[in-house]
Design goal:
Shape: globular
CATH class of the largest domain: Alpha Beta
Distance between the termini: 51 Å
Largest sheet: 7 strands, mixed
Radius of gyration: 20 Å
Strand content: 25-35%
Helix content: 25-40%
Structural class: alpha/beta
């Protein structure tokens, strides 16, 4: 019996949360899709949580996306998005608490929908002391039944050796069909996803005084409350900043890209692909700047 068959049988014998672990371009998303599809073919309920905020397949980049598929697929994005949680950046390093929150909330939602096997895709940020500490913390918080580690040369072993023994670890080698992509190619793919997302965006003016400030913005190393943002942070720094338009439970209704600020009126205008602001209760400030054209413009620092 090969490693893939053993892994799949172990997951079906002890269903629960299955977390993919591996560096960039080792086939995590393809393997996660194959696992979820196999669970469906075994007549079991499954859900997929996409926490790869840089190369999202479920939901737009900068978000954690949840899908509850009913039929197998070759590509994860075929399943659509049931819910999304705004993280605010395509790099997990500075927004990891939000990524973990989105992952845990998505797992809870999947369980509420009676998913037996919940497959979680993750970012390729696994090497270096900061990555090892962050990934270990995330896995301990999530406490999965299974970790599927895909690695070429033992690059995720520093994470695996820090996990509780109760977590079943399945080691796989990348498929020979997997191809490495340059940073430029990944960035171009992300730009296309953003451009597609904002294709039908329209302007919406947000009154800051009536919207809940779900999280603080960070500028020049300082946390800035929403009430002071338009006076403390210059307009050029806010231009095209991504924001999350969230409902009262904190789930994303839409991404917005800031296109205008009006300090005197205490409003910001964003481009967002929604007809109205109905159901939007909170404003979540992001880190990454992205124009509605899909072009990234640096980070709010």
């Amino acid at each position: 019996m090969d490693a893939w068959t053993r892994t799949l049988e172990a997951i079906l014998d002890a269903p629960g949360v299955v977390v993919m672990l591996g560096a960039v371009d080792v086939g995590k998303t393809t393997t996660a899709t194959a696992i979820a599809s196999a669970v469906i073919l075994a007549n079991r309920r499954t859900a997929v949580v996409d926490t790869d905020v840089g190369q999202s397949d479920i939901g737009p980049p900068t978000t954690v996306g949840l899908a509850v598929p009913r039929r197998p697929a070759r590509q994860m994005r075929e399943w659509g998005t049931l819910a999304a949680f705004f993280v605010g950046d395509t790099s997990p390093r500075d927004v990891y608490p939000y990524l973990i929150e989105g992952a845990i909330r998505s797992i809870e939602e999947a369980r509420a929908r009676r998913a037996e096997v919940i497959v979680m895709d993750t970012t390729g940020w696994v090497e270096g002391a900061a990555a090892v500490a962050a990934k270990t913390r995330k896995l301990r918080r999530i406490d999965p039944q299974h970790v599927v580690a895909i690695q070429r040369h033992g690059e995720v072993e520093p994470i695996l050796e820090r996990l509780p023994r109760r977590i079943a670890v399945h080691r796989l080698r990348p498929s020979p069909r997997v191809r490495r992509r340059s940073r430029h190619v990944r960035r171009a793919a992300r730009a296309r996803r953003f451009q597609q997302y904002f294709l039908r965006a329209r302007p919406h003016t947000l009154p800051l005084e009536t919207l809940l400030a779900d999280r603080l913005a960070v500028y020049e190393g300082r946390e800035v409350p929403q009430a002071r943002m338009l006076t403390v942070i210059p307009a050029w720094a806010l231009q095209h900043l991504l924001v999350g338009l969230a409902d009262r439970e904190g789930w994303l209704r839409a991404l917005g890209s800031v296109v205008e600020t009006a300090p005197a009126q205490r409003t910001v205008t964003v481009m967002a692909p929604v007809r109205s602001l109905a159901g939007v209760s909170a404003l979540q400030w992001g880190v990454l700047r992205v124009a509605p054209s899909g072009i990234e413009g640096g980070r709010l620092t």
